[in-house]
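Sanity check

After download, print the first record. It should look like this:
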Amino acid sequence: MATTESVMPRPGRVAPKPITGRKTQKPSNAPVLLLTLIGVVLVHALFCVGVSAYAGGPKNVIWSLWGYEAHVIFGEAQFDINMVLSFIPFDVLFGFALAVIVGFMVRLPFFRDRVYHTIVDVKKRLMLQLSASADEVESIIKNDPENNTRLLARREDINIESVQSEIDAINGAQRYLDGKGSWMTGLSMYMKYHFVEEYANKVQGAAYGGAAFLIIVVGIRGLKFIPAQKPSFILFALGVEFTMLTLLAVTLIFTEEEERTDRILKQMVDAVKGGKGKAAVAAYEQEQQLGLTRSDYERIVTERFDLKIQEIIADKDDSALKRIALDLIARG
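Expected structure tokens:
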């Protein structure tokens, strides 16, 4: 028979924590892919109908397979067009745009999840920027803008306009999640505070890449390697560059003006992205608590560096002394 001592936990021993449930899985992107596929088919059908109408009617378009390949007659000119190759960039661009708009309007879980996580990231950003706790940030978000202005007016290290802009974006996105706000507020929140920051450089690079691809294709066409009667590859190159430039334009539309971006916030975001993580946040919070100025911070760093040199000299570490000497010579 088990004794009471074997059943009861021993003194000083921490009882095991209850097992929490698993993290909720991300919503499936299958509805978005389905909407995109439907949009691609609809847009492609519209392009095919448009080609027939522009050519003067169905009598001037001879389909080998409707929607795939056609022999088009424009007056005296005749062209063989591969509809899929010619219009696939346009189909994907407009089809995906249609899926995104419809998805945000009907509040698909996939897009709601993206907006929710963006809200969480911006709240963490405000915690870093204001050196505030989560509860304090929640209180500031719910506070009146005029009260926030009076509350933060004494802080010289922040941009009040930028902070209030982020607060307004959070409130608007939260209303979207609650089913009360416009779908544009949710889209704007995601684009401005996630997509632009994560993919702006990639989109710009893709736009330059598309331009380079178009130049090569046009050059090949100028050398007569692509017949004038078969313009499908030229249309494909134009579609790729059009898609990249459209993405770049949308990215620039949702990009914050540089003068409205808080400098301290950008430094903290760069530090976290650079791998410093919690150490950077802790150093920032310690600096704010101590009320150090930049000159004070530089003085402390210099003093610590001098102490380190003195320790190395006292230990007679020849290799470390050589490294310091070489570093001083390199700096002049």
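If your output differs, re-run the checksum step. Summary of this record's structure: The radius of gyration is 30 Å.
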